[in-house]
Amino acid sequence: MEYAKIIIESTREIFSSMIMLEVTSGDPFQRGHEKLNNSISGLVGLAGTIKGMLAIHLPDQTAITVTSAFLGMGVEEIDEDVRDAIGELANMVAGNIKSALDPKGSDIKLSMPSAVYGEEYSVDCLAHAQSITVPFELEGKTFLVELQIREEG
Amino acid sequence: MEFAKYIARATEEIFNTMIFMEISAGDPFTNGKRTIASHVSAMIGLSGDFTGMLYLHCPEPVALAIAGAMLGMDLERIDTDVKDALGEITNMMAGGLKEALTAENIALEIAIPTAVSGQAYTISSPSGSERLVIPFTVEQGQFIVEMKYSFN
After folding, report:
1. Are B41 and A118 in contact (CB under 8 A)?
2. What is the interface size between A and B, counted as CB pairs within 8 Å?
């Protein structure tokens, strides 16, 4: 299953159609237990015939840029608007990923999104799952889109 | 729909039959924007007749005690073993909730657990989502089971 390709297409599509910003993808890799600093992560679960979690990790400043573009208004800090916007961003990208994995639309559902944020935190893929991450560049800043998928068997 | 009852029951069963730790459920609460201070949070997505996220929030000493009891090991820091153990507990709690709701013809699918950890993080859900918090007391302190959900 070409997860990296699905992540890239889904992310680029959402950014160009909903956020009106160009993003460039980098090489997929496997995240370790790296800490995220002064960042915010939008997380959405996928449940059904494929089980997983989609995470978008953005440094604060990048999240602010994305939220400002998405909402058409200036934001200055990680406030409720940013948290909701990043959760919604994860929801939208996950929606595209789900459509690619489940074209019939009946076998995978999305959970409610969450946003995790702070000065320093880790988001870890756990046992029985594999994770693939694609870095993206937006106006000179980097953010990550990570898909965790339950391993078969 | 008795979420609090089902979640408390599922949690108690896991702790009685798999972890062998004494726990005592406190009164659930649904209000408040009070953030929960913890060092590790295992979380799992829920989707079906409602969407949600189920969380298990623990301060470090409680996380180490719970994972240690489950794995039969002495654990010193919040490492992969601790996160996997808490993730598995969250997965089982969601499974217990799903079973209880299925008996009421309420459909629920479960995603996969993930662990968030750190010294200073906050987890938020979409504005307008419902919230249910159940505190539990163990010998080493308190842990919290929280569910955010929406019927939209």
Report:
1. no
2. 135
| ipTM of the modeled complex | 0.94
Tens of pLDDT, residue by residue over B39-87, are 999 999 999 999 999 999 999 999 999 999 999 999 999 999 999 999 9
Domain ranges across chain A = 3-150
pLDDT digits (tens, 9 = 90+) for A47-104: 999 999 999 999 999 999 999 999 999 999 999 999 999 999 999 999 999 999 998 9
- Model pTM score: 0.96
Superfamily of domain A3-150: CheC-like (3.40.1550.10)
CB atoms within 10 A of CB B124: 22
* Contact (CB<8Å) B124/A83: yes
Nearest CA in chain A to B129: A112
Please give the single-letter amino acid code of residue B71.
Answer: L
Question: Mutation test of the interface with chain A: which of B35, B112, B122, choosing the one with the most A Cβ atoms within 10 A?
Answer: B112
Q: Name the fold adopted by B3-150.
A: Chemotaxis protein chec (3.40.1550)
Selecting from B114, B117, B121 the residue whose C-beta is nearest the C-beta of A148 gives: B114
Q: Coil, helix or strand for B110?
A: strand
Joined together, the tokens standing for residue A22 give 């160009």
How far is the C-alpha of B136 from the C-alpha of B108, rounded, in Å? 24
B30 touches chain A (CB under 8 A): no
- The residues spanned by each domain of chain B are 3-150
Verify whether the Cβ–Cβ distance B116 to A55 is below 8 Å.
Answer: no
pLDDT in tens, A104-151: 988 999 999 999 999 999 999 998 999 999 999 999 999 999 999 998
% of residues, chain B, pLDDT over 90: 88
Which burial class, exposed, middle or buried, applies to A28 when counting CB atoms under 10 A from its CB (0-12, 13-18, 19+)?
middle
